[in-house]
Design goal:
single chain, alpha+beta, 16% strand
């Protein structure tokens, strides 16, 4: 029996666990298995490292454009004349060793840097520069 130090009758539902139909002695509750695979950051780390390489290569190109007005003039002139081969040769002359694709218009140039070994692989970086 329950000892009550107070001189009144206890209400039978005074234990809050009984109000919510909880057991007085809770059992271990098992969580259902996660529908997601366990976390493995190896692929993410590899992608981030390869993307850093793209950023370094993009920095080479941007640095050349900023520091050489002659280079910027040649690049813009070749693009305006739709000389894709010369544009790509100029970009490669900055020291870029990755695969590149260029798209240009009267308002600017888009340069896609790609370090994929196979289609659908890791990383792409798209530089869009306006003129």
């Amino acid at each position: 029996m329950h000892y009550n130090p107070y001189p009144h009758w206890t209400y039978p539902y005074s234990d809050p666990r009984r109000l919510f139909n909880e057991q007085l002695h809770p059992q271990t509750v098992l969580k259902p298995p996660s529908p997601f695979p366990s976390i493995n950051t190896q692929v993410l780390n590899t992608s981030a490292q390869r993307f850093q390489e793209l950023l370094k290569q993009a920095d080479l190109l941007a640095g050349k454009i900023v520091n050489s007005k002659e280079f910027a003039h040649e690049l813009m002139e070749a693009a305006q004349l739709s000389n894709t081969k010369k544009v790509e040769d100029l970009i490669v002359s900055t020291g870029i060793t990755l695969k590149i694709k260029t798209y240009f218009s009267p308002t600017g140039i888009r340069i896609e840097l790609n370090n994929d070994e196979s289609a659908g692989d890791c990383c792409h970086l798209l530089m869009t520069l306006k003129w």
